[in-house]
Automatic annotation (TrEMBL):
<protein>
    <recommendedName>
        <fullName>Ammonium transporter</fullName>
    </recommendedName>
</protein>
<keyword id="KW-0924">Ammonia transport</keyword>
<dbReference type="Pfam" id="PF00909">
    <property type="entry name" value="Ammonium_transp"/>
</dbReference>
<dbReference type="InterPro" id="IPR029020">
    <property type="entry name" value="Ammonium/urea_transptr"/>
</dbReference>
<feature type="transmembrane region" description="Helical">
    <location>
        <begin position="212"/>
        <end position="229"/>
    </location>
</feature>
<feature type="transmembrane region" description="Helical">
    <location>
        <begin position="327"/>
        <end position="350"/>
    </location>
</feature>
<keyword id="KW-1133">Transmembrane helix</keyword>
<keyword id="KW-0812">Transmembrane</keyword>
<feature type="transmembrane region" description="Helical">
    <location>
        <begin position="139"/>
        <end position="160"/>
    </location>
</feature>
<feature type="region of interest" description="Disordered">
    <location>
        <begin position="427"/>
        <end position="447"/>
    </location>
</feature>
<dbReference type="InterPro" id="IPR024041">
    <property type="entry name" value="NH4_transpt_AmtB-like_dom"/>
</dbReference>
<keyword id="KW-0813">Transport</keyword>
<feature type="transmembrane region" description="Helical">
    <location>
        <begin position="269"/>
        <end position="289"/>
    </location>
</feature>
<feature type="transmembrane region" description="Helical">
    <location>
        <begin position="110"/>
        <end position="132"/>
    </location>
</feature>
<feature type="transmembrane region" description="Helical">
    <location>
        <begin position="54"/>
        <end position="77"/>
    </location>
</feature>
<dbReference type="InterPro" id="IPR018047">
    <property type="entry name" value="Ammonium_transpt_CS"/>
</dbReference>
<keyword id="KW-0472">Membrane</keyword>
Amino acid sequence: MNAAALPTQLAAPAEIDTGDTAFLLVATALVLLMTPGLALFYGGMVRAKSVLNMIMMSFSAIAVVTVVWFAFGYSFAFGDDLGGGLLGDLGQVFLHDVKPDSVTGTVPTLVFAAFQLTFAIITVALISGAIADRAKFRGWLVFCAAWVALVYVPLAHWVWGPDGWIREQLGALDFAGGLVVEINSGAAGLAVALVVGPRLGFRRDPMRPHNLPLVMLGAGLLWFGWFGFNAGSALGANGIAAQSLVNTQAAACSALLGWLLVEKKRDGHATTFGAASGAVSGLVAITPSCGVVDMPGALAIGLVAGVLCSYAVGWKHKFGYDDSLDVVGVHFVGGVVGTVLIGVFAWDGVTGGPRGLMHGGGLELLGKQVVAVVVAAVFSFVATYAIATVVERTVGFRASADDEQAGLDLAVHAETAYDLGSVGAASHLSKPGSPKPLQVRVEADDE
């Protein structure tokens, strides 16, 4: 996915390199793990009555996006350009012409296609956080299929595909997904939140995370998987992958510290939730730039993202849109920070590519990055708003008030996350021949 190396790799394929292949296989598994990690991260952030529904939205995205991607999504995104850098052809539908020995760069095309699939999956799953606690499950499934086909695939071609116009004609850089994943999901999250509407009691009732250990576990899995996300985008075990890995770690840590400093000054407390959110904001921001900036640039990008995102998560209360789990505040704002600051910190000593403002490159690259951000955000928002509106008016997107109040876990899935099985245990023990349950009597204190 390396914006600097990918065109050369696609145009002049080499023989399969076993080291690069093994590296990308591991990276693919790491990125796929990020979606279950996101499910736990989001699951801990919602109220207890909808945690399973939140987790199911991520897991169902894995299934729906995989089918769409292998059917035609990969071909449209990475097939030969049809003209104008807008969309690929149908030469690789169902991967029917992709053989085990087909090569993209130095890795099998099958591995490359699977690696790209994991990016599409988590981008869709990220959007679910904006409509937590209130979306119809069937509406979500329909939305997933339509969105990945009509929004993600075209944007991926523009930025990473052969002759994609944002990379080739505009000359903007996106190493691992600032435009395609972060800004795309953030703008889409805002659009679906506006279409679906706010949760019942928004800005009135407390809607705090119900399980912070689950949030921290999910954040840890995301952090772990992000090394595959960013370093894997070098498409090989090489120096750019190493640079991406250390930049990823640096930005996550500087963002975490920046968020906590703001939180301590503003609220008087440095919280575990703030630590998790701060780390994720830094990981988001370094995603587009990890392979094109040096260490000082990575630290600066992370710090700026941690500070700005910590303030941006409050926008929903100021402007009245209910982005339940801060997809806009973290992923959109963090993605914008990381993508724009490529124009400031890009260093040709990393990739040999264009230089940013801080390294004597002038304003040219910065201007290109700003244009790319605006194009990606507007396209994603408008297209997503249209898709979500169609879904709402056909199969329905907003859950009923009764289901929302009762909790989507029971209403939709007939399950609860924290049923300790007391009823089931009593039923089992009441069967003939079962041992009698231990009788425990608790007496009130006499006062």
